[in-house]
Specification:
Belongs to the FliD family. There is one protein chain. The strands form 9 sheets. The chain has a 5-stranded antiparallel beta sheet, with no helix packed on it. Strands 22-30-24-25-26 form a 5-stranded antiparallel beta sheet, with no helix packed on it. The chain is built from 9 helices and 30 strands. Helix content is 41%, strand content 25%. It is elongated. With 564 residues, the protein is of the alpha+beta class. The longest helix has 68 residues, at 496-563.
Length: 564
């Protein structure tokens, strides 16, 4: 009688059990083959048998390592895609901001007379004025009489003097005119020497200073260089004046202003003016708003952000019964990035103007975390307060007191609002102390420097006059600064994405090592099996020889018995 419960089949089994069953079946089949072959008393195909036994031991482990390697490679690839997306977002914004494409730009009516550029973070929507260039700044240039090319000088010195001090150059005995020029240039005292060769072959030494009247200079030679001299105050000496030193001079809205160079970067706040030529006619200065660039920048930002966020969402998806988990479903670094992106959209990006967040100009977050730009609201914002929309994208820095200016470069200071207080002066009007957020600042003339261990490290302020006692300092990152800061945080040596990358790199190395160890182990196993089967074949061969001998003897015995 057959029991109805004699065969029970499991409806679910683990992959490990299946692998073990396969391995057991393979081993049983191989053993059966060996026994059958031995039983038949024939030679063994040891190469095939060894290959099957090694494969039965190696394949399950190798399959696990292959699966682990594929999973880890997918993680590395996905992480690379996300990092690349973040880099692309950062690069595109940085290019727009640094290139000034989002800033209101100054305009001039005649660029052959002067050019004007906006400094990062400047607001120039109301820029208007008239500039008449009276004269350009010039550097003094003087030259010696002509010497024969074979001329050499005895030992001596050349002493240069201008409004800022003096410098002495030593001339070695036997120096040629070219050697004298090299000695002057090597001193790096603000004077440039050049040797001019005339058509006759004779040579002259030309010496040029820096631009500006204060950089006009005298030179006094002694010893072997005594015939190289010029007295600026008396306009006399052995040298000839080719170009006289003079300051640049212009009239801005009929107010005369001079500078030692042809660049005026402190005449109008946020504007750098470079003079090209003098003119009898004034040049009109105005501004050109980059509204279309700003609008497109907002839309491009939304597109780039959505691409990044979509890749993050796809690769961090949690697995369900109907879909697989993303390659980075449990990655802490990418989760940190995702959280930071969500926070940035609602982050205060500007402390001045009508708009301080992206949401206020029409950029909103969808349920899936991506962004949508309401172009109607964006256009309204651009029409109502374009400066504020610009400020959302451009890093800016400002003070509440016009007598306080920020001289440190934009981007060097952590965004935030800082309070300058307790500015004190001595009887001569020199600054003696100041605090920033309650922490002492370093004093250097009219400049105040934030302590290197404060949150405002890198901030440098310049004080005009002696009436300043306090001021509010606003450092705004803008979208460009915020994304750059996020990218730096995520990809720096201690960043979250870098940590994830390092983890997966270590996993890849560990898998490679396991594969190397497995190969070595299987090689040893193969050698052992080959040795065993070789010994077995030798034994079987001996048994077969003995059997053959016995058969022959039995045959002889049987034959002898029959014949007798």
């Amino acid at each position: 009688m057959t029991s109805s419960t004699s065969g029970v089949t499991s409806t679910s089994s683990s992959t490990a059990a299946t692998t073990a069953a396969t391995t057991s079946s393979s081993s049983t089949s191989t053993l059966s083959s060996i026994l059958t072959t031995l039983g038949a008393g024939s030679g063994l195909d040891t190469t095939n048998l060894v290959n099957e036994l090694v494969a039965a031991s190696q394949d399950p482990i190798q399959q696990q390592l292959d699966t682990q390697s594929t999973t880890n490679s997918n993680r590395i690839s996905a992480l690379g895609t996300i990092t690349s997306d973040l880099s692309a977002l950062n690069t595109s914004l940085s290019s727009l901001v640094s290139g000034g494409s989002l800033l209101t730009q100054p305009s001039v009516s005649d660029t052959s007379v002067l050019t004007a550029t906006a400094e990062s973070g400047s607001r120039l929507s109301n820029l208007s004025g008239s500039i008449k260039v009276e004269q350009l700044a010039q550097a003094q240039s003087i030259s010696t009489t002509a010497y024969d090319s074979s001329k050499t000088f005895d030992a001596g010195t050349l002493t240069f003097t201008n409004s800022y001090g003096s410098a002495t150059v030593s001339i070695d005995a036997g120096s040629s005119l070219s050697d004298v020029a090299k000695a002057i240039n090597k001193k790096q005292a603000g004077f440039t020497a050049t040797v001019l060769t005339q058509s006759s072959g004779q040579q002259q030494l030309m010496i040029t200073g820096m631009t500006g009247d204060a950089y006009g200079f005298s030179v006094s030679g002694s010893g072997g260089a005594s015939d190289i001299n010029y007295d600026k105050s008396a306009n006399s000496g052995s040298m000839t004046v080719n170009v006289a030193a003079q300051d640049a001079k212009l009239s801005y809205n009929n107010v005369e202003v001079t500078r030692s160079s042809n660049t005026f970067d402190d005449l109008i706040s946020g504007v750098s003016i470079n003079l090209k030529s003098a003119s009898s006619q004034p040049v009109t200065l105005g501004s050109t708003r980059q509204t279309s660039n700003v609008r497109q920048a907002v839309l491009n930002f939304v597109d780039a952000y959505n691409e990044l966020y979509s890749d993050i969402s796809t690769n961090t998806a949690i697995g369900t019964s109907s879909s697989s988990a993303g390659a980075l479903a449990n990655d802490a670094g990418v989760r940190t990035l995702k959280s930071s992106l969500n926070s940035m959209i609602n982050q205060k990006l500007s402390s001045t103007g009508s708009y301080s967040t992206l949401g206020e100009i029409g950029v909103s977050i969808n349920r899936d975390g991506t962004l949508t730009a309401d172009t109607t609201q964006l256009d309204t914002a651009l029409a109502n307060d374009p400066d504020s929309v610009e400020a959302l994208f451009n890093p800016t820095q400002s003070t509440s007191n016009s007598a306080v200016s920020i001289t440190s470069s934009i981007g060097k200071v952590t965004p935030g609002t800082y309070k300058l207080s307790d500015v004190t002066y001595d009887e001569s009007g020199n600054i003696t102390g100041a605090k920033l957020n309650g922490k002492d600042m370093l004093v250097s003339g009219k400049s105040l420097i934030a302590s290197s261990d404060s949150t405002a490290a890198g901030l440098v302020l310049k004080i005009s006059g002696t009436s300043v006692t306090d001021s509010t300092i606003s450092i705004d990152a803008g979208v460009g600064g915020a994304v750059n800061q996020l990218y730096t945080q995520m990809t720096s040596s201690g960043g979250a994405l870098t940590a994830s990358k390092n983890t997966y790199t270590k996993v890849a190395s560990a898998i490679t090592q396991k594969e190397t160890d497995l190969t070595s182990k299987m090689s040893t196993y193969r050698t052992r099996l080959t040795t065993q089967f070789t010994a077995m074949n030798t034994a079987v061969s001996g048994y077969k020889s003995t059997l053959s001998f016995l058969k022959q003897q039995i045959s002889l015995w049987t034959k002898d018995s029959s014949s007798s």
